[in-house]
């Protein structure tokens, strides 16, 4: 039997396991600006998208509306 507090804790816990991420790529000579939104349990996927961008644009990463970091890349630098 569940106690009253346990009934409401589970949906809240599950909801917080997934965060809303926004990766905003800046425009560059090699690519247009773009915005990518998705849900994930952590920031790893957001950082992978920012680092694997073929146009090598700089990108701002946001988690649940809070700025996390900026990934800056030189278009001519090697990976």
Question: Topology, please?
Answer:
Elements: H1 4-16, E1 19-25, E2 34-40, H2 44-51, E3 59-63, E4 66-71
In short:
With about 80 residues, the chain is an alpha+beta fold. It has helices at about 5-15, 45-50; strands at about 20-25, 35-40, 60-65, 65-70. It is built from two helices and four strands, in the order αββαββ.
Please provide a written account of the structure.
The chain is an alpha+beta fold. The chain is built from two helices and four strands. It has a domain at 18-71. It has helices spanning 4-16, 44-51, and strands spanning 19-25, 34-40, 59-63, 66-71. The longest helix has 13 residues, at 4-16. The chain is elongated. The chain starts with a helix and ends in an 8-residue tail after the last strand.
Keyword list:
four-stranded antiparallel beta sheet; alpha+beta
Residue share in helix: 25-40%
The topology string of helices and strands comes to HEEHEE
| Discrete helix count | 2
Strand order of the largest sheet: 2-1-3-4
The amount of beta strand, in percent, is: 25-35%
Rg computed from alpha carbons, rounded to a whole number of angstroms = 17 Å
Structural class: alpha+beta
**End-to-end separation:** 55 Å
Largest sheet: 4 strands, antiparallel
Per the principal axes of the C-alpha atoms, what is the gross shape?
Answer: elongated
User: Spans with pLDDT under 50 lasting ≥5 residues?
Assistant: none
Question: What is the number of strand segments?
Answer: 4
pLDDT average, as an integer?
83
